[in-house]
Specification:
This is Lipocalin-like domain-containing protein. By secondary structure, the protein is an all-beta fold. It contains no helices and 8 strands. Strand 7 and strand 8 form a beta hairpin.
Length: about 100
């Protein structure tokens, strides 16, 4: 997923959080990316997730730009290993596993 040859199709689908690295950021428990470059996140706690419903884009360098719940746009480095997807920005890192 890093660099050339990455397509939006590799991101489209449902993902379940497996690790948030102890981040205080309320990443969604599940997130679904759609082919029209929108996404929907579902919470796993009482706090509103940082990604709820908005848009995203895959950039040429393999990073993912996500419009967040508070209408900010954040660019995350992205790495995919098999069924695992890790997104990181600054000190935050979150890993999801693709759902069937």
């Amino acid at each position: 997923m890093n660099g050339m040859g990455f397509s939006i199709d590799e991101l489209v689908g449902r993902w379940r959080r497996v690790d948030d690295g102890g981040s205080p950021t309320p990443y969604p428990q599940e997130i679904e990316f759609f082919a029209d470059r929108t996404y929907r996140g579902t919470r796993g706690g009482t706090r509103r997730p940082v990604w709820d419903e908005a848009s995203f884009d895959v950039l040429r360098d393999g990073s993912v730009r996500i419009r967040t719940a508070d209408d900010r746009t954040v660019t995350y480095s992205a790495h995919r290993a098999g069924e695992l997807l890790t997104l990181a920005a600054g000190d935050d890192r979150v890993t999801y596993r693709r759902m069937p």
